[in-house]
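[step 3/7] inverse_fold.run input=structure_tokens len=322
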């Protein structure tokens, strides 16, 4: 009897495992920005094609900006102040009852100095810092040249690493710069004919296939190792940009960003997000469901037969002893 109880417990455990395995879901858009933002930092790469048109580069920049906001929000909670200054610009920052009047001075296009309350810092390269007399740390996060040369600075109580603040450092790449797309989380932007990695993860054998006129797409693909590729693409560059805008303002579209794939269309000047269900997709879902259900039934029946055999053998042994 004790043996039968042990077998029964094992049987229940196996059934539980089968149920849990059959209920495992692929990555869903409702989970975004996970897994790309992890512990307040960006985890992955953002990729455009090597010859991407300007619109697709802009689309990638919009997504970066939205993710950057999430990182900066985490920094603010850690009492880190971040800002940007142009050459000769002066601003005053306050932390508690202490005020810092800061003026930026470029030494050249690669280094800068700050004048803080009349004191000039040492010459700083990006990712270098100056510890102020009161212990506060001023870090030169980076130097940019977008519509004019400017510097990004950060005040903090601890030493910072620029890659913890600027997600584009080492993460925005061209398709040819990515060695193995399946080993990293990735956000891929562009038409499959412009960004070959879009074709790779989506399985498009024809880069022109799978598109619909005036429709942008946001697609998700989960790799066997758990890494996720999120594809932002569209029939035209304009459609791709529309899809990128939805992802950039994902919190405004939370109710519609669900499933593994959505369509983005512009109607009456507004972006509309709809679930994507083609006939092939429906057939695929039905086939996958039937396969999973059928497999679970077969395993269940095998386990039941094994249990019956074990009970029969146990009873036979018990009678033989008597």
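[step 3/7] decode complete -> sequence:
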């Amino acid at each position: 009897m004790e043996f039968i109880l042990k077998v029964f417990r094992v049987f229940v455990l196996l059934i539980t495992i089968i149920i849990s395995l059959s209920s495992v879901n692929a990555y869903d858009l409702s989970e975004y920005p996970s897994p790309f933002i992890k512990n307040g930092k960006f985890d992955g790469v953002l990729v455009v094609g090597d010859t991407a048109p300007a619109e697709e580069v802009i689309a990638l920049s919009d997504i970066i900006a939205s993710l950057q906001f999430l990182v900066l929000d985490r920094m603010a909670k850690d009492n880190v102040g971040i800002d940007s200054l142009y050459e000769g610009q002066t601003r005053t920052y306050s932390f508690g009852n202490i005020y810092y009047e800061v003026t930026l001075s470029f030494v050249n296009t690669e280094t800068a100095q700050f004048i803080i309350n009349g004191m000039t810092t040492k010459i700083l390269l990006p990712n270098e810092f100056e510890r102020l007399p009161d212990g506060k740390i001023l870090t030169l996060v980076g130097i940019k040249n977008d519509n004019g040369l400017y510097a990004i600075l950060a005040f903090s109580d601890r030493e910072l690493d620029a890659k913890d603040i600027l997600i584009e450092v080492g993460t925005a790449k061209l398709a040819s710069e990515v060695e193995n797309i399946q080993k990293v989380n990735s956000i891929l932007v562009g038409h499959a004919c412009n960004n070959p990695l879009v074709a790779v993860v989506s399985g498009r054998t024809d880069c022109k296939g799978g598109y619909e006129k005036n429709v942008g797409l946001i697609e998700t693909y989960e790799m066997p190792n758990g890494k996720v590729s999120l594809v932002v693409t569209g029939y035209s560059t304009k459609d791709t940009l529309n899809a990128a805008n939805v992802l950039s303002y994902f919190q405004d579209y939370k109710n519609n960003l669900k499933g593994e794939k959505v369509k983005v269309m512009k109607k009456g000047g507004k972006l509309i997000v709809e679930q994507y269900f083609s006939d092939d997709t429906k057939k695929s879902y039905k086939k996958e469901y039937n396969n999973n259900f059928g497999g679970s039934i077969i395993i269940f029946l095998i386990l039941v037969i094994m249990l019956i055999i074990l009970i029969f053998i146990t009873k036979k042994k018990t009678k033989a002893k008597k």
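[step 4/7] annotate
Residues 19-24, 281-289 have pLDDT under 50 and may be disordered.
Residues 32-68+168-276 form a domain with the Chitobiase; domain 2 fold (CATH 3.30.379.10).
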